[in-house]
Write a structure and sequence with these properties.
A two-stranded parallel sheet has the order 1-2. The protein is flat. Helix content is 45%, strand content 16%. 11% of the residues are buried. It has one domain. With 74 residues, it is of the alpha+beta class. The chain starts with a strand and ends with a helix. The chain contains 3 helices and 2 strands. The longest helix is centred in the last third of the chain and has 19 residues, at 54-72.
């Protein structure tokens, strides 16, 4: 199944594993799209916390809907 991945650039713990994860995706010929949101923290889409980044959240949501339309619509 295709994967859509959203990462916050300031989330160093998660991003530290990205190179190995991407290598595994490529080695397994996975279909994936990855986006890294500059200046965003982990949880940037959660509007109930101070980490909320409205611009990044809106862009991520638009990209998510586009991804769903591409891969889930019949």
């Amino acid at each position: 199944a295709p994967l859509l991945l959203h990462y916050a650039s300031l989330d160093t713990r998660i991003n530290g594993g990205w190179p190995a994860y991407e290598q595994a995706l490529k080695a397994n010929q996975a279909t994936y799209t990855a986006h890294i949101y500059e200046g965003a923290n982990h949880g940037f889409h959660n509007d109930t916390t101070p980490r909320y980044d409205e611009a990044a959240a809106k862009l991520a949501w638009r990209r998510t809907l586009d991804f769903f339309n591409k891969y889930l619509r019949g």
